[in-house]
Amino acid sequence: NDTNNNIFQCGTIDSPGVYNMNQSINITVDHCLSITTSNITIEGNNFNITGDNITYSGFGIRFFSSNQLSNITIKNLNIFNFNAGIVLLASTGKFFNNFLTNIAVSNSGTGISSSAAFATISNLTLINFTASNNTNGIAISLNSGQGYNFSSIYLYNNSGVGLKIDTFTGF
């Protein structure tokens, strides 16, 4: 990323602000964008983040924190060829007031997923989200949370689960 907050390569977003993609990104590393702070907006400008088509490894975008991540907006972005297009990843922590709109994830393991068995996920908004030609469309597991706002969700040609939201109950 440059000093104008343009996204032109993979990396970690660890400062609040507005970030704009100014080109598509093709990668062969595990993860593209890691979000480790709150109060950010990523404007994808309808560009693509494309992973390694052979291994389906890593994540296109991962929310990663053991604390709280909130007020994150990601919009107008296409994600292809990852283990998960977008993942909420935490052993503990809270994800809330996060907004994803005009996102398409294809040819991946899962469109959006969580590895947040001990986390709280609340007020997650998905608007105009498409998951197609994946193994799973949307698969979210959580410890607790509330307030899922889904509108215009398109799940098709996924070979496994279309939509799954479940609660982790322990071992």
Any idea what the shape is? Answer: globular
* Number of discrete helical segments: 0
* Overall helicity: under 10%
Largest sheet features: 15 strands, parallel
Low-confidence stretches: none
Question: Approximately what portion of the residues adopt beta-strand conformation?
Answer: over 45%
Radius of gyration: 15 Å
Quaternary structure of the protein = single chain
Number of strands: 15
The overall pLDDT, averaged over residues, is 84
Structural class: mainly beta
| Intertermini distance | 41 Å
What is the H/E order? Answer: EEEEEEEEEEEEEEE
Model description:
The protein is an all-beta fold and 171 residues long. Helices cover 0% and strands 65% of the residues. It has no helices and 15 strands. The protein has a 15-stranded parallel sheet that branches. The protein is globular. 36% of the residues are buried.
List keywords for this structure.
171 residues, mainly beta
Which helices and strands appear, and what pairs or packs with what?
Blueprint: E1 6-7, E2 11-13, E3 17-21, E4 25-26, E5 31-35, E6 40-50, E7 59-64, E8 68-70, E9 72-80, E10 84-89, E11 94-106, E12 110-132, E13 136-144, E14 148-156, E15 163-167
